[in-house]
């Protein structure tokens, strides 16, 4: 059998963690032949709850789960890890200003970036789910100078999946007919889900919808505000779907994307599509079977899309400026 892949998950005792860990351990992340060693990081007060989750992992007797280690010290938990899913973050609480939120998360992601830089395996890939995900990823990346910048991604796959589901539902087709969907920009309310380059049944998705008012006034805000709609309905934020997207992003990044399609990944910009270098922004990406991603090139961006992408990227530039001023990067 193959050597286990060491997978770190932070915020492992949280609600996303409760869905994520069991699916990783059951083989959904790296397939049915790849043993996994889990490395779970939590803050000290949550370690007791995390012990309970580990008891449940034990009670599943997952054949692929070779070992579970837990702790509150990132330099121990991240030692030798190959894949890191940074889920734990400080949520915005009542009365908290944006600067407070960025500072609180800055403290978490500077420390975790430094720890990964010091002890992770050479092939480390880091995916940030914890919000504000793009900027948290940028903070971790900036604090890990020895790890290639492109190994730091942020999650927009949930937005991608939400958009696929909305358009499939609108057109009454199975989700499998929707391809080449792109989320551009920030994982926030300014994100831009692009139907103009997407396909439904091999035909242009925007043309198939043939209703620009629906795209602008229904589709885009429904996708962008879906997180808030779930909180309003469920009383807590999306967790199982966020865990699903985290697994799908990391699965595709490790093993490749299918022929004839692409996925949305927030990656360090190389200047493609006029997105300035130095921010981590969502793009259409393909991944080779060796686990190397590239931004899909040559898509045409119409004026409507251009304005939406520019607005979301401007927000990322602004967040970067704020964390630079706070001395976090
Ligand atoms: P949660 O509050 O249930 O769990 C977060 C866990 O992180 C807690 O157990 C907490 O103790 C832990 N944590 C806090 N600071 C930590 C640190 N320094 N090191 C290790 N663990 C730490 O939250 P939930 O629902 O699991 O969500 C986690 C994050 O994911 C939130 O920031 C949320 O906004 C974000 N999210 C992102 C989505 C995306 O599409 N990018 C979608 C849904 C949620």
UniProtKB/TrEMBL annotation:
The UniProt entry, under SUPFAM superfamilies, shows:
LDH C-terminal domain-like (SSF56327), NAD(P)-binding Rossmann-fold domains (SSF51735)
* Amino-acid positions noted as binding substrate in the UniProt annotation, renumbered to this chain: 92, 98, 131, 162
- The UniProt record gives the binding positions of NAD(+) as 11-17, 105, 112, 129-131
Main enzyme class: oxidoreductase
PROSITE patterns noted in UniProt: MDH (PS00068)
Q: Which residues form the active site?
A: 187 (proton acceptor)
**Is this entry keyworded NAD?**
yes
Which residue intervals define the domain Lactate/malate dehydrogenase N-terminal in the entry?
5-148
Q: Keyword set for this entry? A: NAD, Oxidoreductase, Tricarboxylic acid cycle
Example of a GO biological process term:
tricarboxylic acid cycle
> What residues does the Lactate/malate dehydrogenase C-terminal domain cover?
156-325
EC nos: 1.1.1.37
Q: Which GO terms describe its molecular function?
A: L-malate dehydrogenase (NAD+) activity
Q: Where is the signal peptide?
A: none
Task: Provide the reaction this enzyme catalyses.
Answer: (S)-malate + NAD(+) = oxaloacetate + NADH + H(+)
What highest taxon heads this organism's lineage? Bacteria
What the protein does comes down to: Catalyzes the reversible oxidation of malate to oxaloacetate.
What the record says about family reads: Belongs to the LDH/MDH superfamily. MDH type 2 family.
Name this protein carries in UniProt? Malate dehydrogenase
Q: Name its species.
A: Propioniciclava flava
The top of its lineage is: Bacteria, Bacillati, Actinomycetota, Actinomycetes, Propionibacteriales
């Amino acid at each position: 059998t193959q050597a286990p892949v060491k997978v770190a998950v932070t915020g492992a005792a949280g609600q996303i963690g409760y869905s994520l860990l069991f699916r990783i351990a059951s083989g959904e992340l790296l397939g049915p032949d790849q043993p996994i060693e889990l490395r779970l990081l939590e803050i000290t007060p949550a370690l007791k709850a995390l012990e309970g989750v580990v008891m449940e992992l034990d009670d599943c007797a997952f054949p692929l789960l070779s070992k579970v280690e837990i702790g509150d010290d990132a330099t121990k938990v991240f030692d030798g890890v190959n894949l890191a899913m940074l889920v734990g973050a400080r949520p915005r609480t009542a009365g908290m200003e944006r600067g407070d939120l960025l500072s609180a998360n800055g403290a978490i992601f500077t420390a975790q970036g430094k720890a990964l830089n010091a002890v992770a395996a050479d092939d480390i890939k880091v995916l940030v789910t914890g919000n504000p995900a793009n900027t948290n990823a940028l903070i971790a990346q900036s604090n890990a100078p020895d790890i290639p910048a492109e190994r730091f991604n942020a999650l927009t796959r949930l937005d991608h999946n939400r958009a696929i589901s909305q358009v499939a539902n609108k057109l009454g087709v199975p989700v499998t007919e929707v391809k080449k969907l792109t989320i551009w920009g920030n994982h926030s309310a300014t994100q831009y889900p692009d139907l103009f380059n997407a396909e439904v049944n091999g035909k242009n998705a925007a043309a198939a919808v043939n209703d620009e008012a629906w795209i602008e006034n229904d589709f885009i805000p429904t996708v962008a505000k879906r997180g808030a709609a779930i909180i309003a309905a469920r009383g807590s934020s999306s967790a199982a779907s966020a865990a699903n997207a985290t697994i799908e992003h990391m699965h595709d990044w490790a093993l490749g994307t299918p022929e004839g399609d692409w996925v949305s990944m927030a990656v360090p910009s190389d200047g493609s599509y006029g997105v300035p270098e130095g921010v981590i922004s969502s793009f259409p990406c393909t991944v080779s079977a060796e686990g190397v991603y590239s931004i899909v090139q040559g898509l045409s961006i119409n004026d409507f899309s251009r304005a939406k992408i520019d607005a979301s990227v401007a927000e990322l530039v602004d967040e970067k400026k704020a964390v630079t001023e706070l001395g976090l990067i």
